[in-house]
Amino acid sequence: SQQGEEDPQALSIQEGENATMNCSYKTSINNLQWYRQNSGRGLVHLILIRSNEREKHSGRLRVTLDTSKKSSSLLITASRAADTASYFCATRSPNSGGSNYKLTFGKGTLLTVNP
Amino acid sequence: GAGVSQSPSNKVTEKGKDVELRCDPISGHTALYWYRQRLGQGLEFLIYFQGNSAPDKSGLPSDRFSAERTGESVSTLTIQRTQQEDSAVYLCASSWNGQGPLQYFGPGTRLTVT
User: Fold this and answer.
1) From B33, B89, B98, residue closest to A40, measured CB to CB
2) Which residues contact B5 (CB under 8 A, 6 or more apart)?
3) Which residues of B make CB contacts under 8 Å with A?
4) Separation between Cα atoms, residue A8 and residue A22, nearest integer Å
5) Geometric angle at alpha carbon B31, from A24 and B47, rounded to 5°
6) What are the start-end ranges of the H helices in chain A?
């Protein structure tokens, strides 16, 4: 079943602008991760935020997590054309029958950064 | 060190044929995962291997799908009697162990069933 749901489904911005993508999930989590995918191929891990954290930064990336609302946001500041990709959130749930290794992915946000 | 590799990168097959997809995980990673990604969709979990434990096959969509892993190395995903709805990108990932937070993904195999 789909755990993470990103919105918007697609986002088009100009270089230099900030891009914000949101993710909502349904069940309790251990952590939430954001991945990037270029051209429908391999995923690259961007950032992980644990359930007891509220905000995390990595370079131009800022992730927030609100466990009361079961939502997260990914902010990319000063976007570049090279940031054009699909972005996915993935959640990892607490141990449930020993299956806490599973990541559940949303459908992703397609970000286009126009030069 | 080398990342996760998958082969072939692209596979076109006729409906009804069997296909084998291969994944070479990062050396030393005991956990290996297969995912399927249909066009415009997120990743669907298929199967999980951890060391010598019995694999979690709960995500395999039908009995036409099977996967094997030799020890803590190569894995093959086999799809028998392929159908057009099997067309997708099949992604493999590995991690240090099932508890490790990060999964490292291969480039995927794009399967097209005609």
Assistant:
1) B89
2) B23, B24, B106, B107
3) 4, 31, 33, 35, 37, 39-45, 48, 50, 56, 58, 89, 91, 93, 95, 98-99, 101-108, 110
4) 7
5) 65
6) none
Q: Which residues contact B46 (CB under 8 A, 6 or more apart)?
A: B33, B34, B35, B36, B59, B60, B61, B65, B67, B77, B90
Nearest residue to B106 via CA among B13, B32, B20: B32
pLDDT at A95: 61
Report the distance separating Cα B77 and Cα A25, nearest Å.
29
CA distance B114 to A79: 39
Strands B10-13, B109-113: pairing kind: parallel
Say which residues have a Cβ less than 8 Å from residue A58's Cβ, sequence separation at least 6: A46, A47
Greater pLDDT, A45 or B1: A45
Render pLDDT for B85-102 as a digit per residue (tens, 0 to 9): 999 999 999 998 766 678
Q: In this structure, what DSSP letter does residue A96 have?
A: S
Closest CA to B29 of B9, B56, B1: B1
Confidence check: pLDDT of A93 > 90 = no
**How do residues B16-58 score in pLDDT, each as one tens digit?**
999 999 999 999 898 999 999 998 888 999 999 988 888 999 9
- The pLDDT assigned to A94 comes to 72
* Closest by Cα among B48, B43, B109, B54 to B82: B109
